[in-house]
Design goal:
With about 290 residues, the protein is α/β, with parallel strands linked by helices. Helices cover about 45% and strands about 25% of the residues. The protein is built from ten helices and 13 strands. Helix 1 crosses helix 3 (about 30-45), helix 1 crosses helix 4 and helix 2 (about 20-25) packs across helix 3 (about 30-45). The radius of gyration is 23 Å and the shape is elongated.
Length: about 290
């Protein structure tokens, strides 16, 4: 039994597909299939039901998945322990960043880490927050900057970067422009421009509207705060963004606090508990960069 066989087995189990698993471990599909078959022969049982296009774990496969993951983590921990003794960090870290959110301190932290530990390869991926949480649980990401509503996702360690209210942004000639604030109830039937589902700001807005039994008309959606503000400035609807985002558009839009939102919108760093020393050092660099 070889570690690569366990790696390929875990990849197929998590991807539920031999082709996607092969892409993930960067070898041919036939190579993955052959190694998994060899593992099955050594164990004396089939690990996957191959009767459909989805690679489903058999009962034996489900029993083997936990120990296989533990064996891979132990092997990685051995290498990390040796590296720590020698003062050397190497390997790979996969970082997630919520779409449409350019956060300079994140890049500052990555730069600081890279300068100190050039032997660790960094990869950066943009996605919506919900999918990144799933990827963290699946081990596809090591750490991610996400938007959330009310509290951090269950089962992950986290650090709060920003906790803030929502604002409604309208052009100066809008009927709400002279107000001091907008209530959630005012959004009922109104054209709203906001971020898509899967983002923390949208989850915060949706929950507030559901609690108030309000149904805004989601006229347009965009992942970029700049795009949302631009659409609002053209009179296509009222934009909903976080308080800090809204400040960037004060010259062309009137930002009004949105009253009646029970929980704040959060920007979080989240990660799965890990013995990886490189991840621990990266978290320290990001903590310094964000000043938290």
């Amino acid at each position: 039994m070889e570690l690569r066989q366990l790696e390929y087995f875990v990849a197929v189990a998590e991807e539920a597909n031999f082709t996607r698993a092969a892409e993930r471990v960067r070898i041919s599909q036939s190579g993955v299939s052959a190694q998994v078959r060899q593992l099955e022969r050594e164990l004396g049982c089939e690990l996957f039901d191959r009767s459909s296009r989805v690679a489903r774990l058999t009962s034996a496969g489900r029993a083997a998945l936990g120990p296989a993951r533990a064996a891979l983590e132990a092997a990685a921990g051995l290498g990390h322990a040796v590296d720590e003794v020698g003062g050397l960090l190497r390997g790979e870290l996969s970082i997630g960043m919520v779409i449409g959110c350019t956060i300079t301190p994140l890049f500052v932290g990555l730069e600081k880490f890279h300068r100190r530990h050039p032997g660790v390869a960094l990869s950066l991926h943009e996605d919506n927050s919900d999918r990144m949480v799933d990827d963290l649980h699946a081990g596809k990401l090591d750490i991610a900057l996400i938007g959330a509503y009310g509290s951090a996702p269950a089962g992950l360690d986290s650090m709060t970067i920003v906790s803030e209210a929502l604002c409604v942004l309208v052009p100066p000639g809008h009927e709400w422009a002279a107000r001091k604030s907008v209530r959630v109830a005012d959004l009922d039937g109104s054209a709203v421009i906001c971020m898509p589902q899967g983002t923390g700001i949208r989850a915060t807005l949706d929950d507030a509207c559901a609690g108030a039994r309000v149904s805004p008309v989601i006229a347009l959606q965009a992942t970029s705060a700049d795009a949302i503000a631009d659409l609002a400035s053209r009179g296509l609807g009222a934009a909903v963004l976080s308080e800090s985002m809204s400040a960037d558009f004060a010259e062309r839009l009137v930002a009004l606090p949105l009253d009646g939102v029970p929980e704040p919108a959060l920007l979080l760093l989240v990660w799965s508990s890990s013995s990886n020393p490189a991840l621990r050092v990266l978290i320290s660099c990001l903590t310094d960069a964000f000043g938290v």
